[in-house]
Predict the 3D structure of the following.
Amino acid sequence: MIVKLYRGCISPTLRAKIYDAFLGQMLSSLRNMPSWWKGIRIYVFSPFYPRNEYYDAFRFIGRHGVTFYPFKTSMKYKQADIKVNTSGGGYPYVLHNGKKLYFPKQWETNRVSGLYLSLITEQDPNSAHRYVESYDELAGKTLLDIGAAEGIFALDAIEHVKKVYLFECDEEWIEPLQMTFSPWKEKVEFVYKYVGCKNDGRCITLDAFMKGKEQDNLHIKMDIEGAELSALYGAWRLLAGGTSVTLSVCVYHKEDDAENIPLFLSSLGYCCQITRGLMFLTPHMRKGICRGKK
């Protein structure tokens, strides 16, 4: 009743501002309270718990609070001062490693800086969410960035790769992505389709998309909210037949992905490695990225 009244009386724009200002953090704190107490218990009684990455991650939460990224060097980003600029067209952006990374026009400064801090934290070399050990691995490759969102991974890779296909369907990101990659128009192609295991008006398989294109020397990055395994099924011909193909695939969205995705890739002849460390998704600790190569 209260929720309906709140939504009926407060405009969506004002609700978004309230959520960004304090409500989102408050609700997150309430949801995460049991995990925080578990972390405190493990931290305080540390000698009675095993030393492994699962309990170490909860020790971190007990000491520093609930976070997606429970690893030591994540702390250096908490105090980072992020300068948010505005383009002539009103789009906010940050300078990321000397390159402009744009965000949706309606986003306020605190939302931009908050997401950017999260992005650079998750790509820290010690993060379980780090896609590649070194961007030098991508030299001369064609990058298929599936679930590009703001495009920070492709932006970090842009000087290394030969070509980039950016797959993103969220309309909020289309113009910011085009602005971010405007200096590299000659090597970037935008694909406004979902990637999966079938072909229709809104969805395409990688096997269909890559038909007639160079299928060797690829790097495939997938971060598509739990649809990763389905997208891999739709790419089995490409994965089976290609040479010098490497992958960075998220395995934390679904409980069994950390097991099923490496199994599928291994069946096609890939050597797989799961990144070190864990990510915390209430109430679970999960592995982050499967890296594969053939």
In short: The radius of gyration is 20 Å. The chain has two domains: 2-66, 128-293. Residues 21-31 have pLDDT under 50 and may be disordered.
